[in-house]
Amino acid sequence: MTDLQIPEITDERLRQLYSRIKPVMKKAGSGELYWLREFSDDELRHVAYTWGDNFDRRVPDGTIAPIKGKDFRCLHRYGFQGFFKPSIAEVLAQIDPRLLGVVVAFEIINSPSTEADLRKDPFTSAAFNEGFHVSTVRLYKIA
Asked: Would residue 73 be called left, alpha or beta, if left means φ above 0 and alpha means ψ between -120 and 50 degrees?
């Protein structure tokens, strides 16, 4: 047994963070970064926000920039090992508290897409054994 876990986050804290920190995704084909639609309180915890067409509007060039050196490994609980279903709450709960005053957006830049990705190194293997998938999250600040 390991001590891997996703920190608890209250509904109030989740709403507070989500009011300032939003998910972004690259649109397949174009590679352009997009803000996603607004998600309800329930969806923040219970919806795989990367699934489906949740794109809202393109992020204008030069408005946000990656926070260099702050990409991090993020845990996501799985119900079935073959489905990567990240929630916004999972990501927001794991952002380094020292960066919360600067972060305005996040993007999952790497996630498991093959069976080999589930156990590609000791950390992902341990996480998988504990019921987690592992992604890499990029944090953004105002440019």
From this structure: beta
